[in-house]
Structure formats: C-alpha cells, structure tokens
C-alpha cells in the first residue's frame, strides 16, 4: 500500500510540474537575428527555451517510468534472482551408505518433493513434508536418478536431478609401499590399492604421532619433525586396516645432493669477498 501511495504522489507531482511549465520549442527565426544589439538577448532566450525543452523530455520519461512501475506488482525485480539448486549433482556411494541431499535458494512458498527413479537401488526419504533436504540411502549396486521438483502452488518452478551411482563395498586394502621417507615440511601421497577396483569407498587415514607427521583425508603426509611414525588406513564398512611406516628426515639431508668441491669453492669466494670489504 505504501509502495502504491508513494508512486501516486510522484506521478501527481510530475503532472503538476508539466502543467505549470509553458514549453516552447525554439524556432529558426530565434536563432538568426540581424540586429547586433539583440544577439545576446536572443541567445539567452534560446538557451532558456532549450533547457525547458529538455526538462519536458525528462519529465515525460519520469511519468512513463512511474506508470510502468505502478502496473508491475510490488516486489517485482528486473534482476534475475537466485534459482533453486542442489548441493550435489552426482553421487558416488557404496552399499549401506547415506547422504544428505539439500536444496538451496528455495523460498517459503515453494513446495519440494523428492523421488527416486529406482527405489530398489537408492531410496530418498524426508523427515517432514516439504522439507528442504532429504536422506539418500544406497541399497544395492546400480544407478538411480533422484528428481527434485520445486513448485509454487501448482506451477513447477524448477526441476533438479542428482545421478546416484552405487558401487559394492571394498573387500581389501593395502599400501603400494610399506615404508616411505619424507623431508621435513615436505609432502608426499600414500597410494592405496582397494579391491574390487569398482568400489567407490574411500578409506580414512590416521597418524600414530601427529607431532612427527600429519595426514589428511586423501592420504597426503607432511613431515612435522624428524622421526618415525605409522600411518594407518581403514575401510569402515568392513573394518579392514593397512599400515605404512613413514620416516621424516631433517633438512640437512638435502645438502648432500651437491659435490664437496662446490661448497669449497663457495667458501673461498665468501672469504675473498670478506677480505675485499676489509680493505
């Protein structure tokens, strides 16, 4: 209501301004005056009339914009708003796992439904009706498509899809190398072998002493201090583990890559520079 009243007031003010202004488009006779003493007066008159003519155009444009804004409903925006979207478009799961599928940028008036193309492979469940998120459960090996329909009353606003691939659980895991060395403050990745290779299960990694070496979720190890540590990887589905011994070497070992004569030559150059500075 306030929005409509404000636009009506601006429209009324613009109409009054136009009605009180006597606009006159400059003619050719005003531009050329033979009398020399009237040149300044005519030029000033022409400038004033030109200014009023431009004001008329501007006011007409303002009235047109106000009329258009009154026709459009309140809250209408010319800029495109954020569209509803899913937090994942593709999912690689293993049998028995669950994942929370969520819809972002959905409004309160939107009605959201989740459906699975193959419930025997992957099911989708919501805790409450018209929820913004749902739990996807992997039941069997195969592929399924989760379809999310966003409606406003009876009109479909957007249709979203998430492709789910369910793979079998891993039955074995081991490291490609049982012993690895890494320099202090350097990183190296510990490669693992998982069978069957069609499994999408991801193992977890753990360090026996994080003051010596730390490891992230992808198996990348970084040396923190010199020493020896054991990195353990585990498959949670079957509680299968494998171990790798990591030795963190100090920085001094990097100097052994250059020959002894190189350092002797550098020492002589440094001594020569110091002698020259003393002179």
Count every beta strand, where a strand is a DSSP E run of 2 or more residues: 17
Q: Gap between N and C termini, in Å?
A: 90 Å
Indicate the CATH class of the largest domain: Mainly Beta
Please state the structural category. Answer: alpha+beta
Assign the CATH topology of the largest domain.
Immunoglobulin-like
Q: How many helical stretches?
A: 4
Average pLDDT taken over every residue: 77
The SSE string, one letter per element, is HHHEEEEEEEEEEEEEEEEEH
What form results from the Cα inertia axes?
Answer: flat
Radius of gyration: 38 Å
Tell me roughly what share of residues is in helical segments.
25-40%
Poorly predicted regions: 28-33, 74-79, 253-263, 265-269, 271-279
Describe the main β-sheet briefly. 4 strands, antiparallel
Strand adjacency order, main sheet: 1-3-6-5
CATH architectural type of the largest domain: Sandwich
* Tally of domains: 3
Beta-strand content estimate: 35-45%
Annotate the secondary structure layout.
Elements: H1 2-20, H2 28-31, H3 39-71, E1 85-86, E2 90-94, E3 98-104, E4 110-116, E5 122-125, E6 133-138, E7 142-152, E8 155-167, E9 172-175, E10 179-183, E11 187-189, E12 192-195, E13 204-207, E14 213-215, E15 220-223, E16 227-235, E17 240-249, H4 260-278
Parallel strand pairs: 2-8, 10-17
Antiparallel strand pairs: 1-3, 3-6, 4-7, 5-6, 7-8, 9-12, 11-15, 13-16, 14-15, 16-17
Overview of this protein structure:
This protein has 279 residues and is an alpha+beta fold. Residues 28-33, 74-79, 253-263, 265-269 and 271-279 have low confidence and may be disordered. Helix content is 27%, strand content 36%. The relative contact order is 0.09. The chain is built from four helices and 17 strands. Helix 1 (2-20) packs antiparallel against helix 3. The strands form five sheets. The chain has a four-stranded antiparallel beta sheet with strand order 1-3-6-5, with no helix packed on it. It starts with a helix and ends with a helix. The protein has three domains: 2-71; 85-167, Sandwich (Immunoglobulin-like); 172-254, Immunoglobulin-like, CATH 2.60.40.
């Amino acid at each position: 209501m306030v929005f409509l009243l404000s636009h009506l007031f601006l429209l009324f003010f613009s109409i009054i301004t136009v009605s009180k202004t006597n606009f006159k488009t400059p003619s050719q006779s005003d531009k050329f005056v033979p009398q020399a003493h009237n040149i300044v007066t005519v030029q000033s008159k022409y400038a004033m009339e030109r200014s009023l003519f431009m004001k008329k155009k501007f006011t007409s444009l303002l009235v047109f914009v106000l009329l258009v804004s009154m026709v459009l409903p309140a809250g209408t925006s010319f800029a495109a708003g954020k569209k509803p979207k899913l937090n994942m478009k593709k999912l690689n799961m293993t049998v028995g796992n669950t994942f929370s599928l969520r819809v972002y940028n959905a409004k309160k008036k939107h009605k959201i439904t989740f459906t699975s193309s193959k419930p025997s492979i992957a099911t989708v469940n919501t805790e409450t009706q018209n929820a913004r998120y749902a739990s996807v459960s992997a039941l069997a090996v195969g592929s399924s498509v989760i379809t999310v329909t966003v409606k406003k009353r009876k009109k479909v606003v957007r249709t979203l899809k998430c492709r789910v691939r369910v793979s079998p659980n891993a039955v074995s895991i081991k490291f490609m190398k049982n012993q690895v060395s890494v320099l202090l403050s350097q990183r190296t990745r510990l490669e693992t072998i998982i069978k069957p290779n069609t499994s999408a299960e991801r193992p977890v990694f753990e360090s026996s002493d994080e003051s010596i070496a730390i490891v992230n979720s992808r198996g990348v190890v970084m040396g923190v201090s010199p020493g020896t540590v054991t990195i353990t990887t585990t498959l949670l589905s079957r509680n299968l583990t494998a171990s790798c011994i990591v030795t963190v070497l100090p920085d001094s070992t990097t100097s052994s890559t250059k020959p002894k004569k190189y350092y002797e030559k550098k020492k002589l150059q440094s001594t020569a520079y110091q002698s020259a500075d003393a002179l």
